[in-house]
Amino acid sequence: MEDTAQVKFGTSKNIKQVGNIDLPGGGQVVVEDEYAYVGHVEPPHGTSIVDVKDPKYPKIVAQLQVPEGLHSHKVQVKGDLMLVNYERYKTKQQPQGGLKIFDISNRSKPREIAFFKAAGSGVHRFTFDGRYVYFSPQMEGYVGNLVMILDLQKPSQPEEVGRWWMPGQWIEGGETPQWRGTDHRCHHPIRKGNRLYVSYWHGGFVILDISDMSRPKMLSHLDWSPPYPSPTHTALPMPGKIMDREILVVADEEAQKLAPTPSAFLWIVDITEETRPVPISTYMVPQNGESTPGYHFGAHQPAEQVYDNVLFVTWFGGGLRAVDISNPYCPTEVGYYMPVPGKGQKIVQSNDVFRGDNGLLFLVDRLDGLEILESQL
After folding, report:
1. What is the model's pLDDT at position 1?
2. Which one Pfam family would you cite for this protein (predicted)?
């Protein structure tokens, strides 16, 4: 088997570069109607809107800025609506965190139409289906981020539909957390049918029944931290059965501050019996040698757009990995793309990837740049 743990910068297998553009470090990228939207990691950079009609030559159309003290590194777009998070740094008391909603009918001039205010640090990652937002705000009276559903039928007047929290989070209601600080908190929910699949950081993941959106109901909860040290970042349901099984792909997040513990990796979970999820396999890229201080090497985020049994997963210092789970009991790497470090950088930190239905992949690095790639799988 080929050893791809330490592939060289600028090398690839079954993935090639089509175009790229120099941008500040990105936390998330989404693409719709030939525009890419990038949420940036560090202020004052907020969100960039990039014309990718010609993927060889992407062009910046608009850029939003944010005040110091917070970042706006997540973004979702449907139609003429763009949503971005405002997440305040823990060491700051201002500005206000929350979720901003923009009218982008004119892509070159985004216009803010609403701001949903959250408590504490604000909002982390979220998903949006064009009507409902499934997100992770902090709210008064709770410890850590919880699950909330917003209705944007009237985008200028977002309305809470329902919320769910892990028992122990509602301290104002007399609950007592059985964990340290905000270790158990919602990272972000993903909807499939009338279910939400919710990553819950050091609380593992939960499956929620949202048949009644006003009263989400927990169906199951699985937590492997401890003994495994890395927090759970994403719980991604596959769109169809694989080998007659319902499959959930779970990505833990590499947290360098936990070094020298093993790097985070990918879990494949059988959720055919959804009240009893069972891990059936894992995928890992071994890290050879010493870690680079201040940087990550390990799993982070799979592309949430899935069209077959191949996953595209960002691996921080390990670049982008293509993993075939046609046999979910034995995930197999079938491709990779290792970027070249950006200007002034010595390492890559592949952070997020969006997969188009045309074979194109959009990859952002948390340090620098947006790359447009083409899968040859």
Report:
1. 40
2. LVIVD
Beta-sheet pairing, 81-88 with 98-103 = antiparallel
pLDDT digits 0-9 by tens, 100-116: 999 999 999 999 999 99
Torsion over CA of 22, 72, 88 and 135, rounded to 10 degrees?
-140
User: What secondary structure does DSSP assign to 285-335, as a single string?
Assistant: -PPPSPPPTT--EEEEEE-S--SSSEEEEEEETT-EEEEE-SSTTS-EEEE
CA distance 16 to 377: 11
Q: What is the pTM of this model?
A: 0.96
288 burial level (CB within 10 Å; 0-12, 13-18, 19+): exposed
Please tell me the distance from the alpha carbon of residue 75 to that of residue 38, in angstroms, as a whole number: 7
Length of the chain: 377
- DSSP annotation of 172 reads G
- Residue 313's closest CA among 279, 273, 268? 268
Q: Is residue 187 part of a domain?
A: yes
The answer to whether residue 6 sits within a structural domain is no
**CA–CA distance, 54 with 90 (Å, rounded to integer):** 40
The whole-number pLDDT of residue 100 equals 99
Which burial class, exposed, middle or buried, applies to 73 when counting CB atoms under 10 A from its CB (0-12, 13-18, 19+)?
Answer: buried
Tokens of 276: 């009893």
Supply 216's token pair.
């989400």
Cα 336 from Cα 12, distance rounded (Å) = 5
- 1 in a structural domain: no
Q: Is residue 4 part of a domain?
A: no
List the beta bridge partners of residue 82. 77, 102
CB 263 within 8 A of CB 254: yes
Give the tokens for residue 277.
């999820």
Domain of residue 315, residue span: 12-375
In angstroms, the first-to-last Cα distance of the chain is: 18
CB 166 within 8 A of CB 148: no
The domain total for the chain is 1
Q: Which of 222, 216, 277 is nearest to 246 (CA)?
A: 277
CATH number of the domain that 106 lies in?
Answer: 2.130.10.10
Pick from 98, 93, 142: which is nearest to 124 by CA?
98
